[in-house]
Amino acid sequence: MNQFGVDKAVVANMSGIFYKNCQAANEELFAEIESSATYKERIIPFAIINPVYPGWKSDFDKCVKAGIKGIRIYPQYHDYQLTDAACVELVKMARDHDLVVGLTVRMVDSRQKSWMDLDQLAGTDKPEQGLVDLLPIIKEVPAAKYFILNLANGYQLKNDDFELIMKSKVLMDTSGRSLANMAQALEFYGEEKFAFGTHAPILDYLTGMLRIESLREEEASQSTKDLLRWRNAQSMLNL
Predict the structure, then answer these.
(1) What is the greatest pairwise CA distance in the chain?
(2) For residue range 123-178, what is the model confidence (pLDDT) as tens digits?
(3) In terms of Cα–Cα distance, which of 165, 166, 139, 237 is closest to 196?
(4) Strand (E) positions, 24-126?
(5) Among 192, 1, 169, which Cα is nearest to 70's?
(6) CATH 3.40.120.10 fits 55-237, yes or no
């Protein structure tokens, strides 16, 4: 953060993707933040919640009391669908607490094979999900707030799907490879739909930052760049 001039960062504990009990990872994150006055000032915690794990509602309440600003959900890793009743209930609870819901398009590139690959991708021809695959939960809970993270596969939508994104409280971060042409993405969705993001530690800080900083004057004014750098995220997070 210091190296790239980042004052505050949204952070979740990635271990929560792989722990059977996500709450243990959330508590690790909270303890780490409490260990330093600097961390408390600069780290914005998001909790990982698995809505098909017993006791998740209690975990959610504990995380709200701990001061989270949002949640992250991983249906592909925790084996449920975005439209499952428990997931919809969780997102509605996040909406009611004015929390952002983080939806990650992908964690890693599935083309490199590993024994830890997701079952639904490993050894199959099924493509990774894109923006369109995240729309069902936005349709179910349109009044919630969403971060779309690591947008790696296709962001262009048509007709009703496009209108849904434009009417919803959605921010797409700049880390995903689909946003390599940031000027085109801005022209398609507008300046209020994007925010600087890194997908660190899997991806790097610099790529997401350069997608903003490399925009020419005719592509983005300084006020537009400030929206992308921090203002859009600040507004979404009520900071």
Answers:
(1) 52
(2) 445 556 889 999 999 999 999 999 999 998 888 899 999 999 999 999 999 999 99
(3) 237
(4) 43-48, 70-73, 100-104
(5) 169
(6) no
Tokens representing 96 are 């009611």
The pLDDT tens digits of the residues spanning 71-107 come to 999 998 998 999 999 999 999 999 999 999 999 988 7
If you ran DSSP here, which 8-state letter would residue 34 be given? Answer: H
The amino acid sitting at 16 is: G
What is the DSSP annotation of 163-216? HHHHHSEEEEETTSGGGSSHHHHHHHH-GGGEE----TTTS-HHHHHHHHHT--
Distance CA 215, CA 93 (A): 38
Query: Which residues contact residue 231 at a Cβ distance below 8 angstroms, ignoring those fewer than 6 apart?
Result: none
Query: Does pTM surpass 0.85?
Result: yes
d(CA 229, CA 211) in angstroms, rounded, equals 10
**Residue 129: DSSP 8-state:** P
Give the contacts of 35 (CB within 8 A, at least 6 positions apart).
none
Closest-CA residue to 173 (of 81, 33, 67, 70): 70
